[in-house]
Hints:
Blueprint: H1 11-26, E1 45-49, H2 52-62, E2 66-70, H3 85-93, E3 96-99, H4 106-115, E4 122-124, H5 163-180, H6 185-212, E5 217-224, H7 227-233, E6 236-242, H8 252-265, E7 269-273, H9 279-288, E8 291-295, H10 303-307, H11 312-327
Helix pairs in contact: 1-3, 1-4, 2-5, 5-6, 6-11, 8-9
Amino acid sequence: MAQQRTVKAGRPIVLAVVLFLLLLAVFPLFGCASPKDQGQTEGKLDIIATTFPPFDFARQAGGEHVQVTMLLPPGSESHTYEPTPKDVIRISSCDLFIYNGGVSDTWVDRLLDAAEIQPEKTVRMMDFVSLIKESDEGVLQGEDEHGHDAHLHEYDEHIWTDPLNAIRITEGIADRLVAIDPDHADDYRVNLEKVRADYQDLDRSFREIVQSGSRGEIIVADRFPLIYFTTAYGLDFIAAFPGCAAETDPKPGTVAAIIERVRRDQIPYIFHIEFSNEKLADLVADETGARKLLFHTAHNVSRQEIEEGATYLSIMKGNAGRLRKGLGD
Length: 329
């Protein structure tokens, strides 16, 4: 279980009261809303997911029998998200609510308690995988240097970056769909088998890339939300900041250490993650001649990516191609 933030005594009660009053105030609005977009979602399960990974896993598992909505706006910062009154309504009225369960989701437990949402209507993704504790090993600028309490981040929350974890999570979602909607159980099981085969192929691709690469280490001149990925494939890494770091302004020592490592080992490629300002990666690239590569964690996607039909599978396949280049054939 991911460790919760410590709050002052009485604060959970205040939050519960506020959420309860909010629910009382907004539930009458349901009478003015069209019933689940009428024809578009007629007969489909209404699923709400906090971020892109559960959003896409639910789409793949549910297929034509589900209508999935992502709470996090495309392109926005996932670690500081807080629900709006509209989100509270949607979560309280949906058939299934899927969330990750890490420190970025501490608001979820308060909401679930206040709204009295039944456990069988929720899926917490971190319940289905073996968790890895966050560590400063390999990270040059640790959380304590940003003024954070390291104990607030006991477990890393970016569990889906390991494709085998993605299978385990999708299995959990599919099981819940079968329980909620047994009439379509066979379809959910067929969808799951397709997902399982695709993600197993993805896992095999990553293993082949790492084994055949001329280097076994990646340099991430950015935040590092990839501990599950690097652990799964035995990759060494040097990274600038922890995965959930709120600030990414590098100290001179951080910059110097990455530049020295790239120059010493003659590393031709460095990585950054999606929605990064890329300042540190740009600086390292300018100083060393190394080229930048994106490692897209799939934590969130842009509106354009949504419109172009991005999936967890397509994003990770893109990472596979760039990782092959980064590690060298």
